[in-house]
Design goal:
The protein starts with about 30 loop residues before the first helix and ends in a 6-residue tail after the last helix. It contains twelve helices and nine strands. By secondary structure, it is of the alpha/beta class. Helix 3 links the parallel strand 2 and strand 3. Helix 10 crosses helix 11. The chain folds into two domains: about 200 residues, Rossmann fold (3-Layer(aba) Sandwich); about 60 residues, Orthogonal Bundle (Helicase, Ruva Protein, domain 3), CATH 1.10.8. The strands form two sheets. Strands 4-3-2-5-6-9-7 form a seven-stranded mixed β-sheet. Strands 1-8 form a two-stranded antiparallel ribbon.
Length: about 300
């Protein structure tokens, strides 16, 4: 049976304002180690990077911002004065208390929750400063939690203005990839099915404490008016297609759909019969799925 392999193992990451010693403000070395172990966090300490991230958030005083994983508030303290309301989702009780102790930053509502499990529909329905207001969602996502956060949010992107995040550079490249490239993957198709993707800024490991082993990057997802394919069965179909990406698509799909049928539908769509999964656009994937139908359990 095929396996979902859209993300490689990721090192631990994320966010915090440094003091002169290079530590997250308000955190001891033992605090850092305990927090990183529990929540998969590194702390963002480079003020130039923080400034660049905030400049890329195109907000105005009437906007609602949702920030995922604000930590000590390195980004929060810059964004909150620029919007009508900032809703912060933070898992660590220590930083929840810290954020609540800074009302001078602006109208900040702090929700103590795990962003991989939070009820996004409840937040979008009941936390907006006025009914129907779409938020700008920002976040420096922990590397080891990025995938579940993204897959929880992306189906709701039409209810947001944009999603601007920092993730591992290799993941950002996959999300923003074009067909015919080695980075084009299951993750690419799933994210670009719901949104257009733009790589914004690469971030050196030196911007974090402790220093991760990889580069990071910020990117922006702008929701489409509607997904290219809204059928939940599209996800396992694309997963199957990329499960053996070195093989021709006909060879990967034949066990489920029959080789002759796959070849016929590829030809009718004007696609090469020797193509691989990385050669199809998101629209072509949706068209092929529309002809072949859901993957049937075997």
């Amino acid at each position: 049976m095929y396996a979902n392999r859209y993300l490689s193992p990721m090192p631990k990451s994320p966010r915090y304002k440094a003091n002169k010693a290079g530590k997250a403000a308000g955190a001891s070395s033992s605090d850092d180690r305990q927090t990183r172990w529990k929540f998969g966090q590194n702390f963002l300490v480079d003020e130039n990077v923080v400034r660049g991230i905030c400049e890329d958030v195109h907000s105005n005083p009437s906007d609602w911002i949702i920030e995922i994983g604000p930590g000590a508030g390195a980004i929060t303290r810059r964004l909150a004065p620029r919007c009508r309301k900032l809703t912060a989702i933070e898992i660590d009780p220590k930083w929840v208390e810290h954020l609540n102790n800074h009302p001078q930053w602006g109208d900040i509502e702090v929700i103590e929750a795990d962003a991989t499990r939070v009820d996004w529909d409840d937040i979008l329905n009941h936390r907006a400063p006025e009914p129907g207001l779409k938020p700008l969602v920002v976040g420096n996502l922990p590397y080891n939690r990025a995938a579940p956060i993204l897959f929880g949010l992306v189906p709701r992107l039409q209810r947001c203005t944009s999603l601007q995040i920092m993730v591992q550079l290799e993941v950002a490249k996959r999300i923003c990839a074009a067909p015919h490239s080695r980075d084009f993957s299951f993750l690419t198709v799933m994210m670009q099915n719901w949104a257009t993707a733009e790589l914004l800024m690469k971030v050196s490991p030196e911007a974090f404490r402790p220093r991760p082993n990889v580069w990071s990057a910020t990117l922006r997802l702008t929701p489409r008016e509607a997904p290219i394919c809204a059928d939940p069965a599209f996800k396992p179909f694309v997963d199957l297609a990329f499960s053996q990406r070195r093989k021709k698509l006909t060879n990967v799909l034949e066990a489920f759909y029959g080789k002759a049928g796959v070849v016929r539908h590829l030809e009718e769509l004007g696609l090469r019969v020797d193509c691989r999964a990385e050669d199809l656009t998101v629209e072509e994937f949706a068209a092929l799925f529309g002809r072949l139908g859901p993957v049937q359990a075997r």
